[in-house]
Amino acid sequence: MRLLVLIFRNSALPLLLSALAGVAAGVSGAAVLTVINERLDHLGETSSRAAWVFLVLAITAVSTKVVSKLLLVWVSTRVVRNMRVELSEKILSAPLRTVEKNGRGALLAALTTDIHQIATAMIEFPEQCANAAIAMACFAYLFWLSWWLALIYVGIFALGIIDYKIVARRAQPSIVEARSLWDVLISYYNDLIDGNKELKMHRARRGEFMSRSLTPTATNMMRHSWRWNWILALANGHTQMIFFALLGIALFVAPHVSFLAPQVLSGFVLMSLYMGGPIASLVGAIPNFKLAEVSLKKITELGLALGEADHRDVSNEADAARPPFGSVELRGLVYSYEGEEGESFRLGPVDIRIDAGELVFVVGGNGSGKSSFARILTGLYPHDGGDLLLDGELIGDDNRDTYRQRFSTVLSDYHLFKSIYGMTGSEWSNGASHLIDRLGLARKVKVIDGELSTIDLSQGQRKRLALLNAFLEDREIYLFDEWAADQDPAFKRVFYHDILPALKAAGKTVVVISHDDQYFERADRIVRFEEGRIVEDRLVREQPAAKVAV
Ligand SMILES: Nc1ncnc2c1ncn2[C@@H]1O[C@H](COP(=O)(O)OP(=O)(O)OP(=O)(O)O)[C@@H](O)[C@H]1O
Question: Which of 348, 387, 547, 549 has the highest Cβ tally under 10 A?
């Protein structure tokens, strides 16, 4: 049902036109057969009227078929494009936790396999509507020829459908299982690519990764795919048998039951043969519809339902000028990670107020909650309890995206884009070149046509480029999550002694997550986390304004 809604939401008119053209092709094809059937009865006699009818019907059958196909190709290319864009937008607008929880494997499977399956079914749909219409037109003709024989045909058909359903139902669990295994296989593909070094370095790990994870999953998928394919092939075989049964009845049984004119019998034989193609195609398309339903369900389970309104974590409003802020405050703020066995980590309650222009170092041991705090503070995760306020205004679902736009960040799991998106004109390009120079990368990286010439650099150099991005964004609040961890001692010093004070001097608010205790005295204030809570919040000293411009 959801599939039908989706089909009609996307390109309803061309799909309808294609279906109508398909019906016209099928009906005119069937009409050609009635002319043939009629002429077979008068072999040897000439009729120019019949010849003209034959010619017009044949041309109509071929041309409408071509039109129907062309419309389908036109629609199909657009449907696939639209779904790719829509699903990407859904992923962009979904809350970050939804994206993280789903994982790369499931999302990539949705973007590739599921979209392909749904698009295939959408494209099949009008063609199969046309096939169903052709079958109905054929049956109408059969009823006109002999109602009682046509009724027997309908009865046999109904039995065939019931039989198909009984057999095909057994394929469903394997279809679902094969699709679930595909997610797992993609996550192993990720390991294969991202963990290639680790796998190359250790023979036993490599062997076990293949023998315990990747190969069994691929084998399992093969088994399930084989199972549902043979079950449906068997069900298709049953359907084929029905046509032979129909032909057999027309040829061998019906003449003994009651007198039927030879033209009636040949009509039944011809129509049985003609219907065979469309009905076989209809039955053959059923797996595609089943696969598409499974794919749609998968996408919905990811929290990214296509074609339905959902909770948006991003706003499409134009970026308006914002008045400078005075303070950000967290009051009794709580956030929990849910594991399989309930809550796995709780941040908070956290109470803190950060005033504009402060340089705050957030410190603490591994797993104490610093990065989680950063994600809440920047509005990347919605908090579970307590309040987040900007100048006294509560931050919630409606204004979180706008709130986020005040931050420039380099998070610990940052991603570096080769293009510096979101900045236009030569101004940023000149700025970028200048900053690249200041970051000590001038001999490595250039800005060419709005793109960085390379991002294939060392970890530390890549992080400098991430910093470049943050500088270009030029927002009010900077947040760096262990930015200096990969830097050499000289550049670490530049970061703490030049860059941070320069940002402060420029009126920026800076939050630095750091393990570099030798530089802690560079902060205005130190906030220490332990087990998800602030255990220390102390002023260090007033930072002198820096002389170095960033
Ligand atoms: N994506 C996640 N899913 C589930 N739990 C998480 C996730 N990220 C962090 N946690 C939980 O939150 C705790 C705190 O993690 P967090 O990354 O905030 O610590 P941290 O202080 O930044 O550590 P580090 O100094 O090692 O970066 C972890 O111990 C873990 O239990």
Answer: 348
Nearest partner of 127 among 285, 314, 10, judged by Cα: 285
Phi then psi dihedrals of residue 424, to 5 deg: -125, 165
Q: What's the rounded Cα separation, in Å, for the pair 180 and 173? A: 11
**pLDDT tens, residue by residue, 483-530:** 988 888 988 888 898 889 889 998 999 999 999 989 888 899 999 999
Q: State if pTM tops 0.80.
A: no
ipTM: 0.96
Per-residue pLDDT tens for 266-309? Answer: 888 888 888 888 888 888 888 888 888 888 888 877 766 555 55
Residue 144 phi/psi, 5° resolution? -70, -35
Please list the residues that pair with 364 across neighbouring strands. Answer: 529
Question: For residues 213 and 190, is the Cβ–Cβ distance under 8 A?
Answer: no
Question: Which of the listed CATH numbers 3.40.50.300, 2.60.40.420, 3.30.70.2640, 3.40.50.720 matches domain 327-539?
Answer: 3.40.50.300
Closest residue CA from atom 9 of ligand 1: 372
Q: Is 364 in the pocket of ligand 1 (CB under 6 A)?
A: yes
- Expressed in angstroms and rounded, the spacing between residue 495 Cα and the centre of ligand 1 is 25
Answer yes or no: is pLDDT of 341 > 50: yes
Decide if 452 contacts 464 (C-beta within 8 A): no
- Topology (CATH) of 2-301: ABC transporter transmembrane region fold (1.20.1560)
- DSSP state letters, 79-134: HHHHHHHHHHHHHHHS-HHHHHHHHHHHHHHIIIIIHHHHHHHHHHHHHHHHHHHH
Task: Supply 501's token pair.
Answer: 């004070």
Beta-carbon count within 10 A of 51 CB: 12
Distance CA 424, CA 426 (A): 7
| Ligand 1 proximity of 414 Cβ (cutoff 6 Å) | no
Tokens coding 326: 């005075």
Instruction: Return the CA Rg of the chain.
Output: 34
- The C-alpha atoms of residue 534 and residue 375 are separated, in whole angstroms, by 16
Question: What pLDDT is stored for residue 55 in this prediction?
Answer: 92
Name residue, tokens 């004070």: 501
The structure tokens 């099928």 sit at: 26
Q: How far apart are the first and last CA of the chain?
A: 58
CB of 340 shorter than 6 A to ligand 1: no
Structure tokens at 457: 């650099």
Kindly give the distance from the C-alpha atom of residue 375 to the centroid of ligand 1, in angstroms, as a whole number.
11
Instruction: Report d(CA 153, CA 265) in Å as an integer.
Output: 13
